[in-house]
Structures are given as C-alpha cells and as structure tokens.
Amino acid sequence: MTSKLLATSLVAAIAGTLLAAFPVRADDDAFGDLSDKEQARIDRGEIVVQVEKTSNALKHFRAVGQIKAPASKVYAAFTDYARYPEIFKLKETHILSRKGNVLNVRAVLGLPWPIGDRWVTNATTLSPETLSFSYRRVEGTVLEYEGTIEVVPKGPRLSQVYYAAKGDPGIPLLPTWLLNRFQESLLPDSIQRVRDYLGSER
Q1: Strand, coil or helix: 49
Q2: pLDDT of 2-38, one tens digit each?
Q3: Could you tell me if 134 and 124 are in contact, meaning their C-beta atoms sit under 8 angstroms apart?
Q4: CA distance 15 to 129
Q5: Which residues make beta-bridge pairs with 81?
Q6: Where are the domains of the chain?
Q7: Is the dihedral of CA 114, 173, 48, 9 positive or negative?
Q8: Where are the alpha helices (DSSP H) in 46-160?
Q9: What's the pTM value of the predicted model, to 2 decimals?
Q10: Cβ-contact 160, 42 below 8 angstroms
Q11: Can you tell me the distance from the alpha carbon of 77 to that of 175, in angstroms, rounded to the nearest whole number?
C-alpha cells in the first residue's frame, strides 16, 4: 500500500467513526429547507446530504433520512451511550457524570497505526420532550465537536432524522478539502447504522 493510499484509508476510518458517533447539527438557516425533490428521495428511502451555506473552509454536512421505527425508539438508540460501541463501532464509551439530563460522556475511537486511539469528552444536554439533544466538546484529542440531533415522528412507526456533523479529529497536516470530502461521503452511514441496529428494512 502506498503512503498516499494509506493516508487516504486512515482519514476515511477517522472521519467515518467520528461522524457516526457524534452528530452535529448546524442552524437550519445554514442548510435551508428541504426541497420537494429532496423530501421525495427521503420518502423513497434515500439519505440526503446537504452542505452548510458558509464561507468557512471546514463545512457542516447534514444527512436526513428515515428509519422504520417509532421516534421514541430511534431517539433511545442515539442516546444509549452504553451501546455506542455496538451501534457506532467505537472502542469504548463511558458516562463520567450525570445530573438530571446533563451528562459528561467520554468516548474512545480505536484507530489504526500510525494514528492510534483518539478520545473526546462531551457535555451533553438531553431534551427528550423534543426528541433532541445538544452537546459541546469539553476536552480530548479530538479538537472540535458541538451541535444537536433531532428525531421527528412521521407516523407511528416512521421517523425522520436530521443529523449534521462537522468534525476535526486533530490530525496534523490533514487538508480541509479531503476532510470535507469524507464527511460528505460517509455521513449517511450514521443513519444507516441506527437502521441496522433497529432492524429497519429501509
């Protein structure tokens, strides 16, 4: 394997793991409303990816997709931190502290040599009444994480997930254009993993 191919494979592994595990949703204005065509694709079972409207070099990307399960069950999967290793393929996760709906959650990403494990602690505020949560990065070798995720009921057994992300794993000399490319291509995997976990047929 050439050094260029090795670097590309490592970036893919990092980006895919980070984006699947830690959703970040920018303001709705950053993406705009879904078009009729986009919603039609989502209704057919596709996962649509939108790019943040910003001049910033590192973009937020939002994935929107449906899961054939009650919204409460989908939300429970996204907030079941003890099962994150199973759902999102993390090395380990721990709830360090909890006070009401405010949690500090530490996650470890097992990544291949020469990168090695990366970790992050997020302060997370759960809002189960709106099937959403927000968080911000507190510390860790992962440099940047903050945002929200939202699950919207579309029927008794159908949910629409709004899942956006911007990730900076803190890898020196990692070009922004490459990280953006992997974010866009790998972000739908996060919704697909919850579909698979819940046994959805979509």
Answers
A1: strand
A2: 444 444 445 555 555 555 555 544 445 678 889 999 9
A3: yes
A4: 31
A5: none
A6: 3-198
A7: negative
A8: 71-78, 84-88
A9: 0.80
A10: yes
A11: 33
Taking the CB of residue 93, how many other CB atoms lie within 10 A of it? 18
pLDDT in tens, 180-199: 777 677 778 889 999 999 98
Three-state DSSP at 115 gives coil
What's the pLDDT score for residue 97?
Answer: 97
As a whole-number percent, the residues of the chain with pLDDT over 70 amount to: 81
Give the DSSP H or E segment for 68: none
| β-strand partners of 95 | 105
The residue type at 157: R
**Eight-class DSSP state of 55:** S
Contacts of 200 (CB under 8 A, 6+ apart): 67, 68, 69, 194
CA dist 136 and 104 (Å) reads 10
51, 69 contact by CB (below 8 A):
no
Q: Strand pairing partners for 134?
A: 125, 148
- At residue 10, the 3 state secondary structure works out as helix
Q: CA distances (Å), 77 to each of 40, 67, 97, 102, in order?
A: 25, 12, 20, 17
Residue corresponding to tokens 């530490």:
106
**What is the H or E stretch that residue 192 is in?**
helix 188-198
User: Average of pLDDT values for 81-109?
Assistant: 95
Calpha distance 182→25 (Å, rounded): 17
The percentage of residues in the chain with a pLDDT greater than 90, rounded to a whole number, is 49
The CATH number of the domain covering residues in 3-198: 3.30.530.20
